[in-house]
Design brief:
heterotrimer, A alpha+beta, B mainly alpha, C alpha+beta, A: alpha+beta, Alpha-Beta Plaits, three-stranded antiparallel sheet, 4 helices, 7 strands, 27% helix, B: mainly alpha, 15 helices
Chain lengths: 162, 363, 379
């Protein structure tokens, strides 16, 4: 008799647990309008806001005079674990002192190798590079992933010292 | 049926029949009539599967707190059409050591079996392709032919995952065929007929789910469980078992042949749901409450075909709800559920329902 | 073929031989959680042999560490067990700090602990969702991801990345907490505490789920110890191995929490251990959240970190078990040799032992409850 009771209580318990599960999913189904959390991505591009510390891509901000803060000290190059940053130099003669001086020619950034670890940003003594908030970086050609961060014709801001 | 307050399709059908008979010789008229029925069925099946797949995806999405298809057409309405076109255009891949004949035959068997079942379903008054006196028996019989396609497909693909899936499916359908038939028998005992139109007629004064009270409820619960298993859907989708067997019996199929398995799965879902609606919920009969004349009258305004599809949609909804809630059973648990629980309860229920029918303890 | 006549015995007892066959489960398979390849010996549905083949995602992180300096090593550990990224970072940083004998501020310790527990929650949430999916309940996956998203947002707001956070640096943290941090964590805790019972309603109590996991893949206490299994997997077998309790690091000595120990050692015990661990993690976060002490977030270190000559070992408790970082330094700016003792590696190989005689469907449940992350195994 005990076995029979156990048999039926087993069925009852099983059905109850199944219905409990169905209650949970049923709630989400019937409250779909409120509970749906997915967003439609390309459509909501306008209102999509990244967090202010979001790490998307390394960028070098330029001001309105096309000047940046990078002195070419290559601290970022040293800090980078993957060799994604290469600093190319240029030697010019300083008009004031007449001495030869190294300035930055190209700040080459290989996005393909970058792991966005943020080490270059914290290594930079002049805050010349920042993490950009953009995240759509797919390109059709691998070459496009290598970027030169300082814009052509730009120069170092005058108040920035190495 | 003496009362004919419902919209009757038989005059339309008779008109077509008469005009065919008038313009062609009897043989040709017959052939053209069958061709017309065939084309209508295929179109209906394609349309209903396209709708069902869309609904399934949307329902799944809502269960899973997401939006579901939203891209093609408004609210993604044309998504399944696009998918179907994609499947049509895909390459047919047959693995090298596959049994080519059986490999190509399997999808046809499974789709044919599904179509055969569709033939005996009463969609509305007068809209019934063939109303044979063993309609219910016929449907249960042909719906189990589909497993042959699964077995062949799994075997012929020369893939071990497919083979395991196919053999699982064989064991499953052989077992659950028993339960589904016995649970339907409960209502057959009450209605006293296997003919679907008779079963519907017997529910004129109330559906069996209400009239048959306790035994009909037991039969309905078992029918839902066994029906879900019969259609190879979750939590009984062991034959596909994505997380265990990658895609189970149709691992090796691609393109339109895969689409045919898909089609058959949804068609059999539709058939099971319509059998359930017909047997337990009065088919195309409107919902009536005892002597509430006004209420019953309003219900009569809704055409029978809407009632039928509404009930079918309800049952399909519950089966989908199962799928998107429960984990999958293991093969031995599946068989235990059938042989230790469903079958004994079913047999007991059959005795109970016979007793109830004998004593006239139903409404 | 001989004609069958009356009295011909077609098959005798024992005559019917079944053939054992092999199936490659993976490297591309929906439930191997990555590129793990299991060679299964099968007799029908019964598993006679499991042979894990690893190395499909080996990136030689340990070798790469020998070329990087100690600051750069940290970001590589994100990519081992990506679900416990913060805890991996913490392990390396703690090893370096201990070797240099730097004392980080209390603030750093507490923040690290909160982050570690949030990481553990996120990892267990993902595991729960995937566990349901492996057993065929597809909906759990999305619910788990919904809740995990909130943690990822918290991480993203403070450190700018969601998964590979790289928030720790030797000596402290990369950034201070975002002003919204506490508010957001509180919001999350309120939300998640209401959702965690739903996890139970959907899976833990479900009769099908119970049948699929109870008594499946029983790992005895002795076996767990001898295989070197750690983490919730071992605690499901009753092995006390929580590094947070046994060798407290960061701020674990100032919080109260229980070490979850289950007796049965089956899949369900491992499952339950993780579910209960989530409650413990919530409690740890709650204890620390309102009293984060003030202090520096970065202890001063030299520009080039050089570890003294010697060998250093640091262990932490990741979401999967005990992660050991073993550093041999020759006094240079990068380690001479760095070895990670990853929990996934030891945990995976117990599968060979417990899966014998089970069915294919059980293997999936076992794999889920062992909770492997393949990049953690291969490194």
């Amino acid at each position: 008799m005990k076995a029979v009771a156990k048999y039926f209580s087993g069925i009852a318990h099983g059905l109850k647990t199944l219905l409990t599960g169905m209650k949970v999913t049923g709630y989400y189904f019937s409250h779909a309008r409120k509970e749906i959390i997915t967003q439609q991505y390309p459509e909501n591009r306008e209102e999509l806001q990244m967090f202010e510390r979001f790490r998307g891509i390394v960028e070098m901000p330029h001001d309105e005079n096309n000047e940046h803060a990078c002195t070419g000290c290559s601290a970022c190059e040293v800090a980078c674990p993957n060799g994604s940053i290469e600093i190319l130099w240029q030697r010019v003669v300083d008009p004031e002192t007449g001495k030869k001086k190294k300035i930055i020619d190209k700040h080459v950034y290989h996005y393909a190798m970058c792991t966005l670890c943020n080490l270059c940003i914290i290594a930079c003594p002049t805050d010349a590079i920042v993490m950009g908030k953009t995240f759509e970086h797919a390109v059709y050609d691998r070459k496009q992933l290598t970027q030169i961060l300082n814009k052509p014709g730009s120069k170092v801001r005058a108040d920035v010292k190495d | 049926m003496e009362e004919s307050g419902y919209f009757d399709f038989s005059p339309i059908v008779n008109n077509i029949h008469e005009s065919l008979a008038a313009s062609f010789s009897p043989g040709w008229a017959m052939a053209i009539a069958w061709a017309l029925i065939g084309i209508t069925l295929i179109l209906f099946a394609a349309l209903s599967v396209i709708i069902l797949v869309y609904v399934e995806r949307k329902v799944a999405a809502f269960f899973q707190v997401r939006l579901g298809p939203m891209r093609v057409g408004p609210w993604g309405l044309l998504q399944t059409v696009a998918d179907f076109i994609k499947l049509l255009m895909k390459e047919h891949i047959t693995s090298r050591n596959a049994d080519k004949f059986l490999f190509n035959l399997a999808p046809f068997i499974i789709v044919t079996a599904a179509f055969l079942g569709l033939g005996a379903i009463p969609f509305a008054l007068g809209l019934h392709i063939f109303d044979i006196n063993i309609g219910l028996f016929y449907i249960t019989a042909v719906s189990s032919v589909g497993v042959l396609g699964i077995l062949l497909g799994g075997w012929a693909g020369n893939n071990k995952y497919s083979l395991i899936g196919a053999l699982r499916s064989g064991a499953q359908i052989v077992s659950y065929e028993l339960s589904i038939t016995l649970s339907l028998l409960a209502v057959v005992v009450l209605a006293g007929s296997l003919q679907l139109s008779e079963i519907i007629a017997s529910q004129e004064n109330g559906w069996w789910i209400f009239k048959g009270h306790i035994s009909a409820w037991i039969a309905f619960v078992i029918f839902m469980i066994a029906g879900t298993a019969e259609t190879n859907r979750g939590p009984f989708d062991l034959a596909e078992a994505e997380s265990e067997l990658t895609a189970g019996f149709h691992t090796e199929y691609s393109g339109i042949k895969f689409a045919m398995f898909f089609l058959a799965e949804y068609l059999s879902l539709f058939i099971i749901a319509s059998v359930g609606a017909t047997v337990f919920f009065g088919g195309w009969l409107p919902f009536h409450i005892g002597t509430w004349q006004a209420f019953n009258h309003i219900m009569d305004y809704i055409p029978p075909i809407v009632w039928f599809f509404g009930k079918v949609a309800g049952i399909i909804g519950i089966i989908m709800w199962f799928k998107w809630t429960f984990p999958r059973l293991r093969i031995d648990q599946l068989l235990i559920l059938e042989w230790k629980y469903l079958l004994p309860i079913n047999l007991f229920n059959l005795i109970l329902v016979s007793f109830i029918a004998l004593m006239g303890w139903y409404f | 073929m001989e004609p069958v006549t009356e009295g011909t015995i077609l098959a005798q007892d024992g005559d019917l031989k079944t053939q054992e066959y092999f199936v490659n489960m993976g490297p591309q398979h929906p439930s191997t959680h990555g590129v793990l390849r299991l060679v299964l010996g099968l007799d029908g549905e019964i598993i006679t042999k499991v042979e894990p083949h690893i190395g499909y995602i080996h990136r030689s992180i340990e070798k790469m560490c020998e070329h990087d300096n100690y600051r750069q090593i940290v970001h590589l550990t994100d990519r081992m067990d990506y679900l416990s990224a913060h805890i991996n970072n913490e392990a390396v940083c703690l090893a370096v700090e201990n070797a240099l004998e730097i004392e980080v501020s209390d603030r750093v310790k507490v923040i690290r602990t909160i982050f570690a527990e949030l990481t553990r929650l996120a990892s267990h949430q993902l595991w729960w969702g995937v566990m349901g999916m492996d057993l065929g309940a597809l909906t759990t996956f999305l619910y788990a991801f919904r809740d995990r998203e909130m943690i990822n947002d918290i991480f993203e707001e403070t450190c700018g990345a969601r998964l590979t956070m790289n928030y720790n640096v030797p000596g402290g943290l990369m950034f201070d907490l975002h002003p919204n941090f506490q508010k957001r964590v509180k919001e999350f805790l309120v939300h998640f505490k209401s959702k965690l019972p739903e996890y139970d309603m959907l899976l833990s109590d479900n009769v099908i789920f119970r049948q699929r996991t109870e008594g499946v893949g029983v790992l005895s206490k002795e076996d767990a110890i001898s295989f070197g299994v750690t983490g919730p997997t071992a605690r499901g077998s009753g092995v006390s191995c929580d590094v947070r309790k046994l060798h407290p690091y960061s701020a674990y000595d100032r919080v109260e929490f229980k070490e979850i120990l289950m007796a049965d050692g089956d899949s369900f015990a491992r499952y339950k251990a993780r579910i209960l661990e989530m409650w413990e993690s919530i409690s740890i976060v709650e204890q620390l959240l309102d009293n984060i002490p003030e202090g520096d977030i970065l202890a001063p270190t030299k520009a080039v970190i050089k570890l003294p000559k010697g060998e250093f070992y640091q262990r932490v408790e990741t979401a999967r078990g005990e992660l050991g970082v073993y550093v041999i330094s020759d006094g240079g700016k990068s380690p001479y040799r760095l070895k990670f003792r990853s929990p996934g590696f030891s945990n995976l190989f117990v599968l060979e032992h417990i899966a014998k005689g089970a069915k294919i469907a059980d293997l999936v449940a076992m794999m889920s409850t062992i909770d492997i992350v393949v990049p953690d195994i291969d490194r």
